[in-house]
UniProtKB/TrEMBL annotation:
It is an enzyme of class 2 (transferase). PANTHER family: ACETYLORNITHINE AMINOTRANSFERASE, MITOCHONDRIAL (PTHR11986:SF79), AMINOTRANSFERASE CLASS III (PTHR11986). Homodimer. This is Acetylornithine aminotransferase. Pathway: Amino-acid biosynthesis; L-arginine biosynthesis; N(2)-acetyl-L-ornithine from L-glutamate: step 4/4. Keywords: Amino-acid biosynthesis, Aminotransferase, Arginine biosynthesis, Cytoplasm, Pyridoxal phosphate, Transferase. N(2)-acetyl-L-ornithine binds at residues 136, 275. PROSITE patterns: AA_TRANSFER_CLASS_3. GO terms for biological process: L-arginine biosynthetic process. The modification N6-(pyridoxal phosphate)lysine is found at residue 247. GO terms for cellular component: cytoplasm. Its cofactor is pyridoxal 5'-phosphate. Its EC number is 2.6.1.11.
Length: 388
């Protein structure tokens, strides 16, 4: 039996059967179980920031696992303290950190933190964006603006009002003095790498300030250099009340973080929240290696090269390119993203059919100019193949 059939027989059907079985990686390259080589332009959903088997990540994780792999929250350890301090230094605003294992858990922490604030003030509902994605656990799912994945698991404990993303007037109308918090991605990831119009995040900040609602920036996909900034909200010149991180932070090791700014960071009292694995020493060591080796100048240079290259491609199937930093969507004139993903894989490139008309391109942040050029030169042929 093939690995694919064995996968299908052993796993719940929630993912379907993925089309490629990966065996190993090095830098931006990966090899499947049959030895076929690919350039990885999706990086485990914008997660493998340093690519694969980066020597610094291997060293940090190996050393840490050989020293102490787990303490639980009954005991503290230096890597978690170093990591929290590093994040606070990058944020450069007084804040406090909670460490979790994943994106959805970071958002659960944000949800509970916001709820603690809201209940004190007698506030009753959240606001989030249509097509937004915040995770699969019940709290985060309740904020996720995709009916197909949310509604069958409701009703949810706290009502959520959904607004069209990018529409500041709609946001203003939805957020009243009863609103606990507004959850927004600085650029919507799963919706298709959709940046908002200029000024939207500033408007959200003002609306929250004038109503007392908290602003929660879900930067699980956008942060840690992906957008060309450590945090995408820094480019918008806005400080949220709560920030959530995960994907790129651990470079492939599972970690999530919830940061509360100012007094919001001090709302949880002893016993209010916790996680046995959250902020475990190995994931923290990985995150420290990521923070040491992400080079924003390199990200920006590669981002400009990739974007410029893709924008110069003239093909009837390619309508345009959108996104920020090394986090782009090739927008198609027809719903043929699955065909583009398949044609790219055939040509030796991994990309992601994110929406029927949007292909997500998110290489490791260490991608080289030669690798970017290789993808850009192959792209026209991939598009023509996909159009057939
Ligand atoms: C991926 C993602 C999540 C969920 O993260 P998991 O680690 O899969 O739980 C939440 N929010 C955003 C914006 C994401 O991209």
């Amino acid at each position: 039996m093939s690995l694919f059939e064995r996968f299908e027989n052993a796993f719940m059907p929630n993912y379907g059967v993925p089309p490629v079985a990966l065996a190993r990686g090095e830098g931006s390259r990966v090899w499947d179980v049959d030895g076929k080589e690919y350039l990885d332009f999706i990086a485990g959903i914008a997660t493998s920031s340093l690519g694969h088997a980066h020597p610094a990540l291997v060293e940090a994780v190996s050393q840490q696992v050989a020293t102490i792999a787990h303490t639980s929250n009954l005991f503290l350890h230096e890597p978690e303290v170093l990591l929290a301090e590093r994040l606070l230094a990058l944020l450069d605003t007084p804040a406090r950190v909670f460490l979790a294992n994943s994106g959805t858990e970071a958002n659960e922490a944000a949800y509970k933190l916001a709820l603690k604030y809201g209940r004190r003030e007698g506030r009753s509902y959240f606001v989030a964006a249509e097509n937004g994605f915040h995770g699969r656990t019940i709290g985060a799912l309740s904020l996720t603006g995709k009916k197909a994945i949310r509604d069958q698991f409701g009703p949810f404990p706290v009502p959520v009002r959904f607004v069209p993303y990018g529409d500041a007037d709609a946001l203003k109308e939805a957020v009243t003095g009863d609103c606990i918090a507004v959850f927004l991605e600085p650029t919507q990831g799963e919706a298709g790498v959709v940046p908002p119009p200029d000024g939207y995040f500033e408007a959200a900040r003002e609306i929250c300030d004038s109503t007392g609602a908290l602003l929660v920036a879900d930067e699980i996909q956008s942060a840690i250099g992906r957008s060309g900034h450590w945090f995408a909200h820094q480019a918008d010149g806005v400080t949220p009340d709560i920030l959530t991180l995960a994907k790129g932070l651990g470079g492939g090791l599972p970690i999530g973080a919830c940061v509360g700014f100012g007094d919001v960071g001090k709302l949880f009292e002893k016993g209010d929240h916790g996680s046995t694995f959250g902020g475990n020493p190995v994931s923290c060591a990985a995150a420290l290696a990521v923070l040491d080796h992400v080079d924003l100048d390199h990200v920006r240079a590669m981002a400009a090269r990739l974007r410029g290259g893709l924008e110069s491609v003239r093909d009837p199937l390619l309508k345009g390119v959108r996104g920020r930093g090394l986090w782009l969507a090739a927008v198609l004139a027809e719903p043929r993203s699955a065909q583009v993903q398949q044609a790219a894989a055939n040509a030796g490139f991994l990309v992601n059919a994110l929406q029927p008309d949007a292909v997500r391109i998110a290489p490791p942040l260490v991608v080289t100019a030669e690798e970017v050029d290789a993808f850009v030169s192959a792209f026209p042929a991939i598009l023509s193949e996909a159009a057939k």
